[in-house]
Amino acid sequence: MNTLLFFLVLFIASIAAGTLGAILGLGGGVILVPFLTLAMGLDIHYAIGASLVSVIATSSGAAAAYVRSKVSNLRVGLYLSMATTIGAISGAYLAGVVSKQALYIIFGVVLGYSAIAMLKKRKSELPVGIKNDRLANYFKLNGSYHDPALSRNVDYQVTGSVLGLGMMYIAGAVSGLLGIGSGILKVPAMDLVMRLPMKVSSATSNFMIGITAAASVGVYFLRGSINPFIAAPVAIGVLLGAILGTHFLHRFTATSIRTVFIVVLVFVSAQMLLKGVGIYH
Amino acid sequence: MATKEHELVVERSPEQASSGIFSEIFIGTLLKYGVFFSIAIVALGAILYFVKDGVGGKAAKLVSYSANTQPYFPHTLSALQTAVTHLDPLGIVTLGFLLLVFLRIFQVLLAAVNYLLQRDYRLTLVSVFVFLVLMSSLILGKAGG
């Protein structure tokens, strides 16, 4: 394959990954890493490096639109970033110690659990009767946003602030270890534990994943894992895709986003487990 | 179950959320233009690459990985500086990536200033903490490399 064709193939595939990522509140890394390694036959090191950069681009592009539309909760985002950034640095440094096989298995199990948990809650459109806990009150984490699908303002409060912070540390560590945004872990933590509305969880995750990825990208850069020839088409494509995805998001109700998200969770979970036991490379 | 803390909830008005020089709207705008600027530099580097080296080269040579050999592209800050001053296309691409990273770090710093101006000291501390962690990650990375 010549350089230009290679560049264009990566570029077009990245647009698709970015669109899906923005709709689901993911950085697109969980879609990109399998694509780059399996379909394009690239080394996992480069796939992770390109994914990390694209995660920052997606998050920046999508976050800008969400912040302006006030769906994203910046206070929650910053509060939880305390845990994700420390987690990301831990993860980037632990990457050389922990066996990836074991990590794939743990990741697969966590994702499988998230899929089941979200499946159970599928009927609820918005959380009801949630009251701020002590930390949520202290940092005033509650908020409100306008939901065009419901055509009204939604006020919400936040619970599970401590457990949410703990889960975010793990999400950050997974991000640092695998080079993904780990929005796939952040969204359930906010949705299921902190009981934020689905759209707020998704948008706040998008705001946070770039900050999380920024905490570990330096380590990958110095390791020589960020190949500009791969990362350039991926980052540009993912950003364009993220803009498309952001514009699509408001047309879906929370239930339809959740359905797509569950399908992705199951798919990635199975992939990770198979990789962990060495059946699937 | 309503407890004492739950009755102390103070609702934030939308005006309060968006006030201050470095408001949430401002951060959103900064992110938007900053990311386009960074990605434009990445795209510029990529275009420059094809202009300089043509389109017929074998992609496999550029994207094959070896743990034992040094990469052909800049992966230290000093190598990046050299590459950019020599207008090396892939150096320019990498510069765009680093700008993206610094944009996110700067964004957190702006959030800290914004909350300070609003006299919201709790969120100021949260933002400063995140900023310091991000900065330390670059220093730790440097030491590790």
Task: Give an overview in words.
The complex is a heterodimer of chains A (281) and B (145). Chain A has 281 residues and is mostly helical. Helix content of chain A is 73%, strand content 4%. In chain A, strands 1-2 form a two-stranded antiparallel sheet. The longest helix of chain A is centred in the N-terminal third of the chain and has 26 residues, at 44-69. The model of chain A has no long low-confidence stretch (mean pLDDT 82). With 145 residues, chain B is mainly α. Chain B has a domain at 25-53 and 74-144. Mean pLDDT of chain B is 79; it is low at 1-18. Classes of the chains: A mainly alpha (281), B mainly alpha (145). The interface between A and B is large, with 72 and 73 residues.
What percent of residues of chain A adopt helix (DSSP H or I)? over 70%
Low-confidence stretches of chain B: 1-18
Structural class of chain A: mainly alpha
Structural class of chain B: mainly alpha
Radius of gyration of chain A: 18 Å
Number of domains of chain A: 1
Tell me the strand percentage band of chain B. under 5%
Report the principal-axis shape of chain A. globular
How is the largest sheet of chain A built, in terms of strand order?
A: 1-2
* Record field, number of beta strands of chain A: 2
Order of helices and strands of chain A: HHHHHHEEHHHHH
Range of strand content of chain A? under 5%
Helix percent band of chain B: over 70%
| Oligomer category | heterodimer
What's the rounded overall pLDDT mean of chain B? Answer: 79
Number of discrete helical segments of chain B:
6
Shape of chain B: elongated
